[in-house]
Design brief:
By secondary structure, this protein is mainly α. It contains 3 helices and no strands. It is elongated.
């Protein structure tokens, strides 16, 4: 199971991958998402 916290996951990734920044663009895009995901999920579930 991966660590719960992002920083801990980054530490693990850096230990096993030379290209540990490979997903940084995707991480930044996800973290910058401005819509309220919780309410969108509730609306979707009905």
């Amino acid at each position: 199971m991966p660590p719960k916290y992002r920083d801990a996951r980054q530490d693990v990734l850096e230990k096993i991958s030379l290209d540990s920044d490979a997903f940084e663009e995707f991480d930044d895009g996800f973290l910058a998402y401005e819509d309220e995901l919780g309410s969108l999920l509730s609306d979707y579930e009905g």
